[in-house]
User: Which sequence fits this backbone?
């Protein structure tokens, strides 16, 4: 398989015409020219991501400090394991996105990936803030590094980590397509057993600060999903020969495996022990999401008969819907961000 060329950092002879720009294999100058973008969706994405800026510590965890010790043992175990997985996902994203950027030759897309990496860093920080507030430093460390003791969690992290490591070891075109697909699955499937667990706590009036953190994170993850879907679809237009039946079958198997793992994880961390959720609900929801993600890439149905949102899970949208996040549920101060007054020049 043909190797990708890593873009040159300083490249004064690069193409400046937007029409010459390509996602891979282009000749970029790396100049951040916001006035001449080839991909309009990248410009729209950038603005949206900037508007979504938020600060984890602005959300109060006061109620959670009281709620956490009062959770049932099953709820607290699920909370810890889910957070541990989410922390890993956001950390590996923060670290890996710059690797992908090295091979992307469309500057406006690199800008988006940089903002995304920043947001993943904020997400990791939000988990630290949540844990610092609700538990002791010893408990926090146990949760952060739970993969050391939990074989299921370690297996999940290893699956994702190996896919990302593979692109560090060989930068060919198929491995690039696989790392994009892995990102898309991570953003669109892997968070969701976790998110639904938090939203279910919200339905029971528990851990409102944690839930609010997760809702901001979910809003960002929706845009990350949008970004990777756009990159994959655009790449399909530019490099049709990369999307052979064989390579699309590789992507499809990755998606199916991601869905299988998320369902198995849901059974493991949620099971039948959390009031308001059942294994069947988790499975129905993840199969539906798998279909949604696969069909929104333009590849059709993945699981026949799973096209509609399960009636038992309609409530998830009340918490995860980005539009509702903006209007109904969030404090105005954090959604319309204007921080200039907070800067103090003390130099
Ligand atoms: Fe994230
Ligand atoms: Fe993300």
Assistant:
């Amino acid at each position: 398989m043909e190797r990708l060329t890593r873009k040159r950092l300083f490249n004064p002879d690069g193409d400046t015409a937007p029409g010459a720009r390509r996602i891979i294999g282009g000749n970029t100058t790396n100049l951040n020219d916001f006035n001449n973008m080839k991909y309009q969706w990248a410009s729209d994405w950038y603005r949206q991501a900037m508007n979504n800026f938020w600060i984890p510590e602005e959300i109060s965890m006061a109620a959670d400090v009281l709620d956490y010790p009062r959770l049932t043992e099953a709820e607290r175990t699920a909370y810890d394991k889910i957070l541990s997985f989410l922390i890993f996902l956001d950390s590996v994203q923060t670290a890996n996105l710059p690797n992908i950027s090295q091979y992307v030759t469309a500057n406006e897309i690199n800008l988006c990936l940089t903002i995304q990496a920043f947001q993943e860093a904020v997400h990791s920080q939000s988990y630290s803030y949540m844990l610092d507030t609700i538990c002791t430093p010893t408990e926090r460390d146990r949760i952060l590094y739970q993969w050391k003791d939990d074989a299921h969690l370690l297996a999940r992290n290893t699956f994702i980590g190996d896919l990302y490591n593979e692109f560090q070891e060989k930068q060919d075109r198929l491995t690039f397509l696989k790392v994009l697909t892995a990102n898309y699955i991570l953003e669109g499937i892997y968070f969701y057993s976790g998110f639904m667990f938090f939203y279910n706590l919200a339905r029971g009036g528990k851990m409102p600060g944690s839930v609010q953190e997760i809702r901001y994170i979910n809003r960002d993850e929706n845009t990350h999903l949008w970004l990777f879907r756009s990159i994959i679809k655009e790449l399909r237009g530019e490099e049709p020969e990369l999307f052979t039946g064989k390579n699309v079958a590789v992507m499809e198997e990755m998606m199916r495996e991601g869905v299988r793992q998320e369902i198995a994880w849901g059974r493991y961390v949620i099971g039948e022990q959390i009031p308001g959720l059942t294994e069947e609900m988790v499975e129905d929801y993840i199969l539906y999401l798998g279909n949604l993600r696969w069909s929104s890439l333009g590849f059709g149905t993945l699981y026949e008969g799973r096209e509609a949102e399960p009636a038992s899970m309609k409530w998830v949208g009340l918490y995860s819907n980005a539009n509702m996040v903006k209007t109904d549920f969030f404090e105005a101060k954090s959604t319309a961000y204007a921080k200039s007054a907070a800067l103090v020049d003390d130099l």
